[in-house]
Amino acid sequence: MKVTIKKTGINGEGIGYIDRMPVFVPQALIGEEVEIRIVDKQKRYATAELLRVVKSSKNRIRPKCFIQNTCGACPLMIARYPVQLEYKQDLLKQSLIKYAQIDPRKVARVKASEDVFGYRNQFKLPCAMEEGRLVSGLFMPNSNYFIDVKKCWIHEDGLERVRMDIMHVLNTHGCVSYNPHDKKGIRNLVVRGFDNRYQCTIVTGNDELDERLISDLMRIKGLTSLWQSIHTIKKTPEVFGNKMMHLAGETSLAMELDGLKLQISPRSFFQLNSKQAVQLYRTIASMVKEDNELIVEAYSGIGAISLYLKDKAKEIIGIESIKDAVVNANQNAALNGCEHVSFLCDDAANKLTYLSKKRSIDVLVVDPPRSGLDDAMLDCILRSKIKNIIYVSCNPATLGKNLAVLSSRYNVDKIQPIDIFPHTPHVESVVLMSRKNK
Ligand code: SAH
Questions:
Q1: What CA–CA distance (Å, rounded) separates 432 from 411?
Q2: Distance CA 17, CA 7 (A)
Q3: Which three-class secondary structure state does DSSP give residue 122?
Q4: Which of 223, 265, 315, 329 is the most buried (most CB within 10 A)?
């Protein structure tokens, strides 16, 4: 069966139509004529496998990565980079029109990523045994099939080197992958790095790691912080278990962004592309005017956004639910001499409801997870008198749905998408809003 691809879907796949029914075709680009085999037929849509590209797009390129097709993390790697940016801008526009009827002309061009390869500063990869050796890799999407990732092109080069060095040391010491029956072995390897300094967390069952293993790991060039996380819960999307143990080196990882000093613990979230984090934070700062009394940042992580805004308000309060991140954020405020910036550990909606009743908030910055703002948060914002909101979103669908609600009280003034994850379908956007009838 043949079909012509008309659109790109939210997961980076091509979409064609058969008798007006959408058919999702992974690995196919807009304008291509492709031969397909339907693999799953639902009432309103079907999913197909690409058998052959009959007429290829001029935007198609050969992906650098030879497991691109099976790994699934980088579906857009088959398209030229400027075209990827056009897809992303279009995905954002479509979502904002669909959910919130926002004028697509408000969506600026996507800011390109400075690095297109080697940009990712962290990985959390599962481990498995392959031909008697412990390897790190990925499960194929929606499957139990494990892929040994020998080289990941989107990881920073130094991060890949450290990954190989760690796997080598673990194998030298005879480490094996996790066995759920005896609850022992290595489940995941988590490494994060900035400026050639790396923090490694080994996620294991009930294992006690040998002193010699620990000292051999600490000999790896650049490894400055080593942690173990004990994780014996059967099936969970969480990578880390409840118990975290500091094994060697420094407890947190130090880094610098635009002259700001930041400390990060393993469980704290941080932007995965350091250079694009700078672009993101500068974009946010450019949208906030000077001389505010109070700025509140909800979902503040280790506090980077608040610290970028340090000169723009007399007081800045961040709200974050992960305790380790709040500890980092308050340390970071102190490290940068910001006594007027503080962070509280709480649910964002809970604390914002309290704050907005007591105080007048000039600017609220929100940077929620992919699920977007929950009803309590939306309700609290609508009832408040907050003048300006900056919504940082990593998910156009939840952004669209949330803006539909907020637009009863707020105008959408600017929308600036930024590419943080080249080759993946992820789209990050910064939206500036102002309260109606001020
Ligand atoms: N703005 C930060 C982090 C954003 S990621 C940065 O740029 O680095 C989203 C953050 O929201 C995570 O740190 C997560 O722990 C936190 N979070 C998730 N749900 C939350 C909630 N209900 N209340 C407060 N924080 C929450």
A1: 9
A2: 10
A3: strand
A4: 329
**Superfamily in which the 95-114+271-435 domain is placed by CATH:** Vaccinia Virus protein VP39 (3.40.50.150)
Does the annotation place 114 within a ligand binding site? no
CA distance 207 to 177: 11
148-194: pLDDT as tens digits = 999 999 999 999 999 999 999 999 999 999 999 999 999 999 999 99
User: What residue spans of 80-156 are helical by DSSP H?
Assistant: 81-100
What whole-number distance in Å separates Cα of residue 357 and Cα of residue 54? 62
**Angle, alpha carbons 32-33-37 (nearest 5°):** 120
Residue list, ligand 1 pocket, CB within 6 Å: 269-271, 299-302, 304-305, 319-322, 325, 347-348, 367, 369
* Helix axes 348-358 and 375-383, enclosed angle (nearest 10): 10
Q: Which atom of ligand 1 is nearest to the CA of 394?
A: 5
- List residues with catalytic annotation: 394
Average pLDDT over residues 53-63: 98
Encode pLDDT of 306-338 as tens digits.
999 999 999 999 999 999 999 999 999 999 999
Q: 432, 436, 371, 435: which is closest to 399 by C-alpha?
A: 371
pTM over 0.90: yes
Beta strands in 205-300 (DSSP E): 223-230, 243-249, 253-257, 260-264, 292-298
Where does CATH 2.40.50.1070 sit in the chain? 122-256
CATH number assigned to the domain with residue range 1-60, chosen from the 4 options 3.40.50.300, 3.40.50.11440, 2.115.10.20, 2.40.50.140: 2.40.50.140
Angle, helices 81-100 vs 396-406, to 10°: value is 30
Nearest by Cα to 377 from 415, 336, 346: 346
Tokens of 192: 């994060």
Residue nearest to atom 10 of ligand 1 (CA): 299
> Which CATH number is correct for 122-256, 3.40.718.10, 3.90.1640.10, 3.30.460.10, 2.40.50.1070?
2.40.50.1070
Report the nearest atom of ligand 1 relative to the CA of 281. 7
Strand, coil or helix: 193: strand
- Helices 211-218 and 157-172, interaxial angle, to 10°? 150
Continuous segment of H or E residues that includes residue 148: strand 146-148
